[in-house]
Amino acid sequence: MVVGSYTGFVVNRMFFPYMQAGLLLVEHGVDVYQIDRVITKFKIPMGPFRLVNLVGFGVAIATGMQFIQNFPERTYKSMLIPLLH
Predict the structure, then answer these.
(1) What is the mean pLDDT of each run of 10 residues along the chain (85 residues)?
(2) Could you list the residue range(s) of the whole structural domain that residue 56 is in?
(3) d(Cα 21, Cα 48) in Å, to the nearest integer?
(4) What's residue 26's pLDDT?
(5) Which residues of 27-66 are buried (b: 16+ CB within 10 A; e: fewer)?
(6) pLDDT at res. 8
(7) Distance of CA 77 to the CA centre of its chain
(8) Per-residue DSSP letters for the chain?
(9) pLDDT at 32
């Protein structure tokens, strides 16, 4: 499969909605460790928060900002990101 050079490439286009869902759950009171634990039961190697910790928060924020800029209608703007940024 050939993929063009666009915002997010393939991996980030899959990861970003995954992370946004995790942030939405946290905003509704779900524990980040519980989210990551449950995800592994679906045979996904690691949850979104463990993955962000591995990749680096700075990379996640930079990627998120690109998605907000390029896809505002498809982006959930979490209240947590400005607090953590």
Answers:
(1) 64 78 94 95 91 86 83 84 70
(2) 9-84
(3) 9
(4) 94
(5) eeeeebeebbeebeeeeeeebbbbbbeeeeeeebeebbee
(6) 61
(7) 11
(8) ----S-TTHHHHHHHHHHHHHHHHHHHTT--HHHHHHHHHTTT-SS-HHHHHHHH-HHHHHHHHHHHHHH-GGG----SHHHHH-
(9) 93
Domain count, the chain: 1
Which residue bears the tokens 């990551």?
Answer: 36
Does 3 fall in a domain? no
Q: Kindly report the CA angle at 15 between 83 and 67, in degrees rounded to 5?
A: 60
Residue 17 belongs to a domain: yes
List the CATH number of the domain containing 63: 1.10.1040.50
Give 13's contacts (C-beta < 8 A, 6+ positions apart): none
